Amino acid sequence: MPRRHVKKPGETVRTAVIGVGYLGKFHAEKYAKIPEVELVGLVDLQRDRAQEWAKKLGTIAYSDYHDLIGRVDAVSVVVPTDQHFSVARAFLEGGSDVLLEKPITSTLREAEDLIATASFEVHRLTPFRQRGVEVDVVLDLMIHDLDIILSIVRSEAKAIQAVGVPVLTGNVDIANARLEFAGGCVANLTASRVSLEDRRRIRVFQPESFVMVDFAAKKANFFKRIVNADSGGIKIETEPVRVDPGDALENEIRSFVRCSQRRTRPPVTGEEGKRALALALQIKEEIQKNLEKIPAIQSFYERTDEDLRDHSW
Prior knowledge:
Blueprint: E1 13-18, H1 24-33, E2 37-43, H2 47-57, E3 60-62, E4 74-77, H3 84-93, E5 97-102, H4 108-121, E6 125-129, H5 137-152, E7 157-165, E8 174-181, E9 186-192, E10 201-206, E11 209-214, E12 219-227, E13 234-241, H6 248-262, H7 270-291, H8 295-302
Parallel strand pairs: 1-2, 1-4, 2-3, 4-5, 5-6
Antiparallel strand pairs: 7-8, 8-9, 10-11, 11-12, 12-13
Helix pairs in contact: 1-6, 3-4, 4-7, 5-7
């Protein structure tokens, strides 16, 4: 597949969204707002849902994503994790750039295959984020925190401790992990999808100071330890950090469209998505080892309850 040309300013980028579930419809709305984008179609196994959103946004509904292969420049793949590989690869091979939610795929082998396909075809593979109970909380939520940590810490994890339990589904719904990195950094993570409140925070500690970021509130503060030179007393000084209050999803999709237009490297690549997946799978393995020590929980963990799963797009 030859490299696509760099589009001229104002030249239309043809896009589509595969999977118009909870997050997919937001992708579709964002594409529809961008002047230089033509939303060619929306695909969902539930055709009624695709038709509903296609009517709202002035495009065409499809129930089979194969109908759009070779017809779009860029596509958002917002389907369950176990279908990422087949759908994303089909579009990459068809000449489209792909915006793909995290986790990038279910396995490292699939991730490597997608990255190789994107590299060979000279297309862009960009991980995105979504959630669904077809995966456990590590791949559903914690992987986003891992991605943030790995963007800060450049060394590899040398020790992993992790525990987790299923609560409402047949997969782990609450998990805690402690990661020690070769460079000396230690990260403690907790992820839960059964909490009574929506809390997404990260604190980064360093000598004499720390930063706290509240992703839900779009706020951040810098805390610094100040020692009084005369009295020796200690106080904590707080300084707000300016945070862009913009629409994160819209910003991400606009960035993806620009990369597709200009043939430039995306801010987050498939390789970075693979690195986060590799660490997430190590955490899952550690959780599984600990679950096996508790027969009653393991029995619950292994059960398959289709009523608790949503396989639709």
